[in-house]
Each structure stands twice: as C-alpha cells, then as structure tokens.
TrEMBL record:
Protein name as catalogued: Rieske domain-containing protein
Organism of derivation: Enterococcus pallens ATCC BAA-351
A molecular function GO annotation: oxidoreductase activity, acting on paired donors, with incorporation or reduction of molecular oxygen
Pfam name, any one: Rieske_2
Record flagged with keyword Mitochondrion: no
Length: 100
C-alpha cells in the first residue's frame, strides 16, 4: 500500500525525518544528490532508532555505535552484519509516498 509520508519541502538534506506509517516507524532521508530513501527506524544490533544517525553519501552511520548502513538496500556493512528494511519511495511534486 502506498501512503503519503511527508512533503519534500519539509526535508533537510542529510537530516532524518521520522514518520509512522501503518504502525511502522520509518526514517526518511534526502541525501546530497537529492535522492530520497525510507528505512526502518530501528537498528537490530543496538535495538535503538537510527533517525539521529549521520548521512554520508548513500550510507547512514547508526548514532550509537556508528554501524555503516546502506540506505539503498539496508545492509549493515562489514565487519558488522545485519539488515534494516527499506521501503520504496515515490516523489510526486512535493509529496513523498512510501510503499508499506
């Protein structure tokens, strides 16, 4: 199901925005090149939110232990392992829709 999540005008590059869609807590990020990603706001390794993490390129550095997480596929990079769920995003004008 595609759900309106937020407005593009409300995003700041490299700063996460939290939304709850269909009872799922999701962090939305716009990276420096303008692409927008939606990823579950929960790290399986730290059992904590990732919203406050630092974005660098297409990666998110988890805020507690700085695990490097791909915003494209949710994979936690080596030497650590794990994966966060990513959600397909569609932008229409100023509206950001997320497939949940």
């Amino acid at each position: 199901m595609r759900v309106l999540a937020t407005k593009k005008s409300k995003l700041m590059p490299r700063v996460g925005r939290s939304v709850v869609l269909e009872e799922q807590k999701i962090a939305i990020f716009q990276i420096s090149d303008g692409r927008i990603f939606a990823i579950e706001d929960y790290c399986p390794l730290t059992k904590a939110p990732v919203l406050e993490g630092i974005v660098s390129g297409k990666y998110l550095y988890e805020p507690m232990r700085e695990y490097k997480i791909s915003l494209i596929d949710g994979v936690i990079q080596e030497p650590d392992e794990g994966q966060l769920k990513v959600y397909p995003v569609e932008v229409i004008d100023d509206d950001i829709f997320v497939e949940v």
